[in-house]
Amino acid sequence: MVHRKIFSCRYTQKIVGGGYDALAVVSLVVAVIVAIIAKFGSQLF
Length: 45
Prior knowledge:
transmembrane helix; transmembrane; membrane
């Protein structure tokens, strides 16, 4: 739990420190992929 809290703290600092743009792009891409899978998943499988 302590390690996770430390990691979370560093992660937050990274986002605030300017890594937010990259994170936002990655999150957007993941969201799009998930949406596509959710939409066509039933047809593919």
